[in-house]
């Protein structure tokens, strides 16, 4: 087989076989196919698209390009959850203990922040002592005993994806549905999931800027998951404004605790119920989404989910006292309010740019090497659709520097107040097959 012939085939819109796709991925991973040929191939895929069978074969070839985690010694159906990205997305911190409180195993491997704000691992590490590097045997033992552990992803998962993503980034081929779908699903399959719940976000703060593309991506991932013998469900959700009220690592831990205590933001809680009920159904913990939601509500209201969060923190070496005294985590030196400059209704809070503002404070990384300041971030007091009086605080800035002029300017430029506005729909679609 010659790479040039396969590029030509895809360029002309033909369908590649499993052997051909495996040849491309294996040889690219091994360094036998150069970046210039792979770049041409990616651009051909970008324009010609792929069939579901091709995307499935691409996904499986990428999943098997490195280590594939074997979770078979954990009892039960292991359901993983993945979000395609957002700002202030605190769901995993709430969802992991909430779902585990029903006895459903949550063996989660998470990443660090790729974008502007911290990822789930960074948020968990804002809890003093919390360990995310845990040996495989201990990870499996903890999940068998406690039903939940959230740890860092090992370095060798789907190395083909790592290499391809870097190439896509510099060849304008990131925003291609077959390439995104295979990238995400290969990592979930390599991480050992039996079933997968996807949160496909749409809006300013997301990869998919419009709802149509997000729905298409979600349907594609569900279909290829099924072709790869994994049960998959998806939620298409709004990420035009940040999720919840807190953006920043310690602030989001506090937000997760408040949500588990029953007084968190309504949108965050709704996302957790929507995604959690899919996880529970896939793990066969309930017959349908309605029954699953009722069980999750019960676990939250009884305090069982909060207890599970404490257990998870204790198991991973963290300081459990923060759950009853979350204010201990709020250690930023300065707090500044951002007063509304006029009266009206909030019509826009651009998620992306608010994420950049949080990063400028130190809550995220500009480059991979940057370190994170857990204490800093933003707490929104108003969301889209809320009325606001002139001078009323739109949000609080938690900073460790006195000079937040640039951050304030960026926030003012990306929060709009108008005559009328409505709360956006949070969940655009629920895809179960
Ligand atoms: N997230 C991924 O993991 N891969 C993509 O290609 C896009 C988003
Ligand atoms: Ca949040």
TrEMBL record:
Cofactor(s), by name: K(+)
Location of the Pyrimidine nucleoside phosphorylase C-terminal domain: 345-418
Any coiled-coil regions, as ranges: none
Entry keyword annotation includes Transferase: yes
Pfam families: Glycos_trans_3N, Glycos_transf_3, PYNP_C
Gene3D superfamilies in the cross-refs: Nucleoside phosphorylase/phosphoribosyltransferase catalytic domain (3.40.1030.10), Pyrimidine nucleoside phosphorylase-like, C-terminal domain (3.90.1170.30), Transferase, Pyrimidine Nucleoside Phosphorylase, Chain C (1.20.970.10)
SMART domains: PYNP_C
E.C. numbers: 2.4.2.2
Catalyzed reaction equations: uridine + phosphate = alpha-D-ribose 1-phosphate + uracil; 2'-deoxyuridine + phosphate = 2-deoxy-alpha-D-ribose 1-phosphate + uracil; thymidine + phosphate = 2-deoxy-alpha-D-ribose 1-phosphate + thymine
Keyword terms, alphabetized: Glycosyltransferase, Transferase
InterPro entries found in the cross-reference section: Glycosyl_Trfase_fam3, Glycosyl_Trfase_fam3_N_dom, Glycosyl_Trfase_fam3_N_dom_sf, Nuc_phospho_transferase, PYNP-like_C_sf, PYNP_C, Pyrmidine_PPas_bac/euk, Pyrmidine_PPase_CS
Assembly and interaction partners: Homodimer.
Alphabetized PANTHER family for the sequence: THYMIDINE PHOSPHORYLASE (PTHR10515)
Entry similarity comment: Belongs to the thymidine/pyrimidine-nucleoside phosphorylase family.
Its job: Catalyzes phosphorolysis of the pyrimidine nucleosides uridine, thymidine and 2'-deoxyuridine with the formation of the corresponding pyrimidine base and ribose-1-phosphate.
Protein's name according to its UniProt entry: Pyrimidine-nucleoside phosphorylase
């Amino acid at each position: 087989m010659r790479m040039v012939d396969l590029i030509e085939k895809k360029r002309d819109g033909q369908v590649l076989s499993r052997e051909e796709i495996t040849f491309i991925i294996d040889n690219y991973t091994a360094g036998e196919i150069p970046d210039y040929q792979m770049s041409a191939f990616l651009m051909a895929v970008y324009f010609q698209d792929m069939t579901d069978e091709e995307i499935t074969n691409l996904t499986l070839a990428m999943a098997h390009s490195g280590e594939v985690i074997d979770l078979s010694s954990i009892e039960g159906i292991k359901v993983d959850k993945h979000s395609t990205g957002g700002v202030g997305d605190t769901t995993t911190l709430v969802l992991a203990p909430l779902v585990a409180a029903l006895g459903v195993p949550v063996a989660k491997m998470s990443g660090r922040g790729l974008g502007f704000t911290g990822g789930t691992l960074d948020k968990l590490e804002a809890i003093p002592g919390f360990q995310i590097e845990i040996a495989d045997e201990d990870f499996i033992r903890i999940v068998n005993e406690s039903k939940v552990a959230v740890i860092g992803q090992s370095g060798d998962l789907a190395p083909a994806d790592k290499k391809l993503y870097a190439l896509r980034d510099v060849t304008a081929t990131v925003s291609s549905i077959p390439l995104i779908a295979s990238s995400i699903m290969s990592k979930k399959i390599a991480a050992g999931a039996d079933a997968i719940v996807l949160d496909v976000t749409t809006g300013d703060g997301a990869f998919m800027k419009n709802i149509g593309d997000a729905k298409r991506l979600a349907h594609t991932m569900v279909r290829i998951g099924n072709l790869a013998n994994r049960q998959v469900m998806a939620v298409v959700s709004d990420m035009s404004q940040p999720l919840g009220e807190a953006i920043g690592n310690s602030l989001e831990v506090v937000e997760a605790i408040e949500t588990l205590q029953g007084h968190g933001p309504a949108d965050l809680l709704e996302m957790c119920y929507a995604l959690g009920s899919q996880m529970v159904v896939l793990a066969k913990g309930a017959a349908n989404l309605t029954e699953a939601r009722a069980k999750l509500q019960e676990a939250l209201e009884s305090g069982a989910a909060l207890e599970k969060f404490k257990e998870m923190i204790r198991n991973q070496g963290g300081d459990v006292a923060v759950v009853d005294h979350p204010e201990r985590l709020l250690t930023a030196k300065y707090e500044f309010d951002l007063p509304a400059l006029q009266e009206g209704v909030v019509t826009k809070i651009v998620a992306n740019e608010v994420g950049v503002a949080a990063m400028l404070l130190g809550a995220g990384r500009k480059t991979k090497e940057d370190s994170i300041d857990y204490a800093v971030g933003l707490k929104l007091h108003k969301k889209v659709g809320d009325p606001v009086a002139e001078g009323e605080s739109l949000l609080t800035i938690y900073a460790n520097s006195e000079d937040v002029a640039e951050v304030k300017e960026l926030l003012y430029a990306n929060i709009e107040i108008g005559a009328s506005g409505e709360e956006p729909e949070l969940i655009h679609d629920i895809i179960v097959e």
